[in-house]
Design a protein that fits this description.
- Helix 5 (134-147) runs parallel beside helix 6.
- The longest helix has 14 residues, at 134-147.
- This protein has a six-stranded parallel beta sheet with strand order 3-2-1-4-5-6, sandwiched between helices.
- The chain is built from eight helices and six strands; from the N terminus they run E-H-H-E-H-E-H-E-H-E-H-E-H-H.
- It is of the alpha/beta class.
- Helix 5 links the parallel strand 4 (126-132) and strand 5 (151-160).
Length: 213
Amino acid sequence: MENPTKSAFILIDMEQGFIDPASAHCIKGAAATVPACEKAIRIAREKKIPLFFVKRIYRPDGSDVECTRYQSWIGGGRSMAPGSYGAQEPESLSPQNGDYTIIKPRWSAFFQTELDLILRRLGIRTVILAGTTTPNCIRTTCYDANALDYNVVVLSDCTSSQTEEIQQANLADMERMGALILDSNHFALYCENSVPDLAADIRSAIENATTTH
């Protein structure tokens, strides 16, 4: 499939367990971002950008739940188990044929998953991040992507936190790290020239330096 932007759209943890206010793990700002996420997904499809739906689903016995989340997971009715309501996403945010679904065991979408392998096989140079929660899963995925030499775009109105103060502080930190922060309206204008490919520029500079010495 033609993908001139060499980008991938990655939607993280937009399941009912994180969206529904009745859930013990609900992120206060998550539900309000659903319309923007829907819009961004439509834009990504129009631009032929492959979509990755990254989900957190726990084993029914809790053997893979984070140590720091285990007690709240028990108290919250063991949500996000396979087949549970908490593990389901809204229909409008569900994968379609040809999309990728990845189950992650921890915060980052890269940690012990096949995400990096698939992105490299597809020739992806830039990851576009959306979903929840900004200080945890979005941020760790952003930093891991940077460590793996991907360019990073974060869609501000498609990400969410427990408070607006937390949201803005983390967006600012990721921007200082080198991520490009856009909203879904600006994402509509996204093209192959929107993000400098810093790793490619460095490789070119090193090659040029090698050939001139």
